[in-house]
Structures are given as structure tokens and as C-alpha cells.
Amino acid sequence: MAYPRQPLFAPNGAVATSQPLAAAAGLAVLRRGGNAVDAALATAITLTVVQPPSNDIGGDLFAIVWDGERLHGLNASGRSPAALTREMVLAATDRRGATPVDALGGAQAEGPAMPARGWLPVTVPGAPAGWRDLHERFGSLPFAELFTEAIGYAERGYPVAAGTAATWARAVAAGGPTGPEYAEFDRVFTVDGRAPRPGERWRNPDAAGTLRRIAESGAADFYRGSIAAAIDTHAARTGGLITGDDLARHTSTWVDPVSVRYRGHEVWELPPNGQGVAALLALNILDEVDLAALPLEERLHWQIEAVKLGFADAHAYVADPERVPVPTAALLDPGYAAARRALVTDRAGDPVAGDPERGGTVYLCTADPGGMMVSLIQSTYLAFGSRVVLPGHGFALQNRGTGFRLDPTHPNVVGPARRPFHTIIPGFLTRDGEPVGPFGVMGGHMQPQGHVQLVSATLDAGRDPQAALDTPRWYWHAGRSVLVEPALAAEQDLVAGLRARGHEVTVAAEPAVFGYGQAIWRHSAGGYVAGSESRVDGAMLGW
């Protein structure tokens, strides 16, 4: 008999993430007197070493921080190279063809798509600057001290976790393009051409050197020093567009999180260029629907249809707000939610965007004895990002430019020095302005719908964070196609009922499709209660 995982109750602080060694690194920092931001950074930095298919030094980062009084948001995503143009991408697509990906959940129009690999989708990595900026505002321990565990694992090696090994093996088996820009990938990330096996010791000494330079320079070396020069040189030699000037111009952006009310709580996400508004749009629609009183089939139907409508608007309007206005406030207006809610019938729909009034990823969360809490997510996207690995430095560059559109009329059209539609989103829950806690579900297009399902399981079904994370999930990709986990399919007549409503339901056994999540809530009796993903190597630790 399989017993369900129980939540963690911790009196002082907690760390939850998808890899136990990284969670332990964060907990060690808490126990040394570091705060929740210190613990989040130690965890995030260690994740680049111990879970490299999903995130790396060359990726992006977003975070929400409760400082004890209010929420702060950090958008540490990078921009496209100044030399990148739509015409350049179209010319390359005509020559080689593009590899369509799940960046926009199948919602892109037919025709040319951004390539998934190589230099064209590479944007400036924002994670190292994000680590620095979070530490400068909130950190308490020395910045370099937060790199200790990560550097040690990179230098001396560590046994690869089973879930990470499975993701790694899928990525290597899928293969990739060839060319001088990819030459370093096999040397760094394979063992005699294969992925490391579960429990096999793996080292990345080049990454240790890179992390040490970032730690000692406060990330300055990455954007203006020897690492920046190495990226510039490798791009110039192998057909890339990113330059030292692009790296030197990079800045993170502090933003105010945005929210909607749901069941007497406030659900918080970061504003665009991320897709968090898709989750808020869906929850805004569902807040006037008594899901707890509905049969499971009808409850899931409402959730799926609300998520479709949320994605339709997110895909139509989310872009770089520094370049084009994004109607975030209008999209989240209750009146607009009512109009969108009216579109839901008892049949599966094919929603389109409304017209509001204008005006591979890892997730972690931490909490400390002082009440500070952090929701943080970082990624290179897909598996190993662009697969362009910087020689002698041990890390892959992200391919976030895959999120751009090639439609010249779209606000998210590819172009120079702009941020693309971004899939990674941290979440946070409050009630009447008081913190409940951080949460997130990673997994590309799954993330907003994972947020909706986690919040609903918590507030509609009254489940603790572990039980909410363990609730069987569904995944909507595009059109009327819906994947469900086997545990949902086991519910009597559920699949048949959804199919009768017009949903094209498939039972999928692959857990990676349904995302991996974490959550930490403040406990009414004091301390915290935490949950971590049971579909992968998730761990929640506390003291």
C-alpha cells in the first residue's frame, strides 16, 4: 500500500524545492542565521548545479518577497540582443526551418515560429543579476557565502537525483543540432555521450569557477568582466548576436505584484512580461462560481474553460511593458471577468481573446523565523535552454527568445532589446493583507493552470499544502485537448462526462507534463506548514 506524503510542520523556518540537496543548502543558511532571501538564493544557486536540465547560470529569475510588511516583486528576466530583428529570424527560418515549441501552449498562428535552439532565441541571462539585486535589498549574510554549497557540488561532484536523471536522459536522447556553437554541450553535460544515471556522481568544475567569479564580484564579472567577454567572443566566433554591450546594459526591474480576490484571499502574481495574469484571469472568472458545491466533472469543466479564457488574453496582450502598454488593470477588472464568465457554457469552447478597456524550470519557496517569505522561480527554458554552452565556463545559455512572435502586428513580436513573453511565474497568497505564503508550479504552459489548481485545492477543498500539491492534475494544451493524470481517470465516469461536454480527453502517465510545485503556508498555531512535489525529487525541510 502506498501512503501519501505528509506535510512538514516547522516552528522556525522552511525551504521547499524540487531537489533535496538544494533544499538542504537553503536550510543550512537559515540555521546559520540567514533570512529567507539568503536561503532562497543559496537554494537557487545550488539548483543550477544539481538540476542543470531545468535551470542554469545562463537563465532568468522572477521573485516575490514578503519582507514582513509588504510584497515586493523582482523581474530579473533578460532582453534580446540589440542586433536581433524579425527579418533576421525569418531569413534563418527560411534556410533551416524552425522547431515549434510549447512556449505559447500551441497558440501561435500557423507559419514560421521562433527557433528553439541555437543563438537566435538567446536572451541576456538575468539570474546572476537577480541574485545580486535580491541580496542587495534584503540579504543579511555575505553574498559569497551563499555560493558555498553550489561551488562544492560543482567541484567535488554529487550523486544525481532520480527525477533529474530522467529529465536529463530524455533531453540527451532527443538529440540536438550540430555546429560550433553546440560543441561544448557533450563535454560538459554528458558522460561518454549519455546522461548521468540515478546516483551516479557528476561534476562540473568549470561551473564552479564561474560561480566563484560571480560570488566574488557581486555578479559584475558576468555582465562587465571576463564572463561577459567570453560570451561576446563565443557569439562572435559562432554566429551569435549577443555582445558585451548587451550584457553591460542589462538591468533587473523591481515591480509591484498584481492580484485578484479569490474566496476571501488575494492571489498575487508578477505583472507582464510574465504569464501570471493568465492564472489571475482564470481565478477572477471562477471566484463567482461555487466550485465546492459542484460535482467533480463540472468543477473541472469550469476550471478548464476559465484557464482557456485566461490564456487567450495572456497570449494576445502580454509583451514587454517597457516597449508597449499591457492592459493589466483592465484585464483584471471584475467587470471584465464577469463578461468572460458569461462565455462559459456546459460545452467545451474555443475561446478567443477579449477586448478589455484599455487604460525545463525550477521553483522554490522559503520562510524564516522573522516572518520573511520568498517565492522564486528560475529557468533556462526547455531542457538545457539553447544548448549553447559557454566554453570553459560550464553553463548553458537560455532560449527565452522562443517566446517571441513573428507576427509583425503582435505586441510580442521579436525585435531588439526587448523582453519576450515569459512562462516562469512565482505566486503568493495573502488574506486581508496578511501573508499566507508563497507557492508555485513550474512547467512552461502548465504554470498558470497549475496555480489555479493549487489555489482551488487549497481554498475550495481546504487541503494542506502537501495534499493540495498531490491533488491529481489536468493539463490543457490547445484547442479542446485536455490531458488528465491516471488518478483523475479513475474517478467514475469523469472522463466520459468531460468528453460528452466536447473535451478531447487523453490519460497521460508522464508526470512531467503536469508540472512540479511547492508551497509554504503560515500555520495558525505558529511556524509554517510546507508541501513539496511528490511527482519528482521534491523536498521540504525545516527546523
Could you characterize what this model shows?
35% of the residues lie in helices and 17% in strands. It is an alpha+beta fold. It has one domain (1-283, 360-543): 4-Layer Sandwich (Glutamine Phosphoribosylpyrophosphate, subunit 1, domain 1). The strands form four sheets. A seven-stranded antiparallel β-sheet has the order 1-18-17-13-12-9-8. The protein has a seven-stranded antiparallel β-sheet with strand order 7-4-3-11-10-2-19, with helices on one face. It has a three-stranded mixed β-sheet with strand order 14-15-16. A hairpin with a 5-residue loop joins strand 17 and strand 18 (528-532). Helix 2 packs parallel to helix 5 (148-156) and helix 5 packs antiparallel against helix 8 (205-217). It is globular and about 60 Å long. InterPro entries: GGT-like_enzyme, GGT_lsub, GGT_ssub_C, Ntn_hydrolases_N.
Spatial strand arrangement across the major sheet: 1-18-17-13-12-9-8
| Spans of at least 5 consecutive residues with low confidence | 98-109
Per DSSP E runs of 2 or more residues, the count of β-strands stands at 19
CATH class: Alpha Beta
Rg of Cα set = 22 Å
CATH architecture annotation name: 4-Layer Sandwich
- SS-based structural class? alpha+beta
Domain module tally = 1
CATH fold topology? Glutamine Phosphoribosylpyrophosphate, subunit 1, domain 1
What is the terminal-to-terminal distance?
30 Å
Measured by DSSP, the beta-strand proportion falls in 15-25%
